[in-house]
Amino acid sequence: MKARNRLRAVVKWILLGMAGFILLSVLVVVLLRWVNPPTSAVMLGQRITALWQDDAPRTIYHEWIEWSLIPPPVALAVIAAEDQRFPQHAGFDLVELRRAWATFQDGGRLRGASTISQQTAKNLFLWSGRDYLRKGLEAWFTVLIETLWPKQRILEVYLNIAQFGPDTYGVGAASWRYLDRPVVALGNQEAALLAAVLPNPHRYRLDPPSASVQRRAEHIRGQMRQLGGTAYLERL
To answer: Strands (DSSP E) along 113-176, which ranges?
Structure first.
């Protein structure tokens, strides 16, 4: 009997913990629909890692840019590079997932098929890694932001927290640090160059852009034209 009571108590606390987490996560996501996050889990993780390793505090380059000040070519370039079905899907691109799985079954490498929504959820709320817990939480937060935020807000947050280089997050900081100009002054060419380092700014660099980054940027500009130019953003 005592063992059964202890089991019931454990189950009760687990259910209460899950209910608390669900309620808290919903409240946080609702709040961030209107309040701009001052940082992200990825940026905080970088600071904590530096402290843990007894390194000197690292400068994080980050500047929040309101949606109204982000040039349409910048938003379009990121969509063209990362997630061309962003306006249509509900957080998960089933077409790309099926293609990735088919490639894997044919003996190819299992590639990622993360959407902008998934990357926003991961960067804003979670830690880096490929464990099942993180992937499950990523799916949960992706559903939340797709349900509670408009597409424009998801893209705005992503553009402000995505990593574009070492210690550099968001298009505002990246534009000043790598292109020596404010983001409002960027056109198609510069926008495509920024998008070309996503989603792996450790492999693709902007200081200076390599030949492969230049080729990626040229391809992105072509994709921007195929999407119909900045009029594509009217679908958000």
So the answer is: 163-165, 168-169
Q: Is 25 in contact with 140 (CB distance < 8 Å)?
A: yes
Tokens 């160059």 belong to residue: 193
The tokens describing 13, both together, are 């606390």
C-alpha distance from residue 202 to each of 6, 168, 198 (Å)? 49, 11, 9
Do the strands 61-62 and 168-169 form a parallel or antiparallel pair, or are they unpaired? parallel
Dist CA 190 CA 172 (whole Å): 13
Residue 73's contacts (CB-CB under 8 Å, 6 or more residues apart) are 186, 187, 188, 191, 192, 224, 230
Let me know: does 73 contact 188? Beta carbons within 8 Å. Answer: yes
Residue 126: pLDDT above 60?
A: yes
Query: Model confidence over 130-159: pLDDT tens digits?
Result: 788 899 999 999 999 999 999 999 999 999
- pLDDT over 60 (residue 73): yes
Q: How far apart are CA 153 and CA 123, in angstroms?
A: 15
Q: How much of the chain, in percent, has pLDDT values that exceed 90?
A: 68
Place of tokens 């669900």: 22
- Give me the pLDDT at residue 103, please: 63
Cα 32 from Cα 30, distance rounded (Å): 6
Helix (H) or strand (E) holding 61: strand 61-62
Q: Which residue has the tokens 């464990």?
A: 131
The three-class DSSP label of residue 206 is strand
